[in-house]
Amino acid sequence: MVALTLPANSRIQVGRTHLLPVDARRGREFSIYRWSPDDDANPRYDTNTVDLDDCGPMALDALIKIKNETDPTLTFRRSCREGMCGSCAMNIDGVNTLVCLRPIADIDGAVRITPLPHMPVIKDLVPDLTHAFAQYRAIEPCLKSDTPPPPDGERLQSPEERGQIDGLWECILCFCCTAGCPSYWWNGDRYLGPAVLLQAYRWIADTRDEATGERLDALEDPFKLYRCHTIMNCTDTCPKGLTPAKAIGAIKELMIERQL
């Protein structure tokens, strides 16, 4: 028979509640997704109340405070705290974002934090990005050129040529866009997803790269590229303000141009 319900151990339960100290004056509730592969327990939402008078302004500050002072078993990734590394990509109240860039003051009511959606979870707020990075490696994200570099070792570009990769090189591979793409949810085993396709176009658009034909050949596939249905979730959720959908559209245009 076809299973029409979720497995019993996938249902999220109500977890532990950690209250504020009695002398705290300005509390804010954080509902945090918890799951560990080390036991057979269902995933749960733990409730932690944080005193905002004794906490930094960003959602990441609250997570660090909870881990340091309330529950040291809480697991999440973070590194630069400046929106440059992409490590702390999570979902806050239904929006994929970098928690180091999300001010607590901009969030209404209780703050619900979960790992990036539709990604396998390693533990708590840590998604398994093994497959996503394997797809990234598959596009060969490095300069490919048969022309030897100049004697001084630099391949120069004009300002106009350099401008062609603006809006592309800024991608930090946080995968917020990929995790928010319904086409990737359905076909993630074969569709490359918006983050990887934006990175692919970054090298196609680079005037120093001489492998455009080879790169387009590698993307000429019913699933790798063409599963994009321009839903635009990727652009809406990008914490760096980039437009992966535009990059994907540019690749499709190049595919058509070389066929005409």
Features:
alpha/beta; 2 domains; Fumarate Reductase Iron-sulfur Protein, Chain B, domain 2; 260 residues; single chain; six-stranded mixed β-sheet; Ubiquitin-like (UB roll)
Short synopsis of the structure:
The protein has 260 residues and is of the alpha/beta class. The protein is built from nine helices and eight strands. The chain has two domains: 8-127, Ubiquitin-like (UB roll) (Roll), CATH 3.10.20.30; 130-259, Orthogonal Bundle (Fumarate Reductase Iron-sulfur Protein, Chain B, domain 2).
Q: Number of DSSP helices?
A: 9
**Order of helices and strands, N to C?**
EEEHEEEEEHHHHHHHH
Give the strand order, joined by hyphens, for the main sheet: 1-3-2-6-4-5
Approximate helicity band: 25-40%
What does this protein look like?
- The radius of gyration is 21 Å and the shape is elongated.
- The chain has 260 residues and is α/β, with parallel strands linked by helices.
- The chain has 9 helices and 8 strands.
- It has helices at residues 59-69, 130-138, 159-163, 176-179, 182-187, 193-204, 212-219, 233-237, 244-259, and strands at residues 13-18, 27-34, 44-51, 89-92, 95-98, 111-114, 121-123, 126-127.
- The protein is 29% helix and 15% strand.
- The chain has 2 domains: 8-127, Beta-grasp domain (Ubiquitin-like (UB roll)), CATH 3.10.20.30; 130-259, Alpha-helical ferredoxin (Fumarate Reductase Iron-sulfur Protein, Chain B, domain 2, Orthogonal Bundle), CATH 1.10.1060.10.
- Helix 6 crosses helix 9 (244-259).
- The strands form 2 sheets. The chain has a 6-stranded mixed beta sheet.
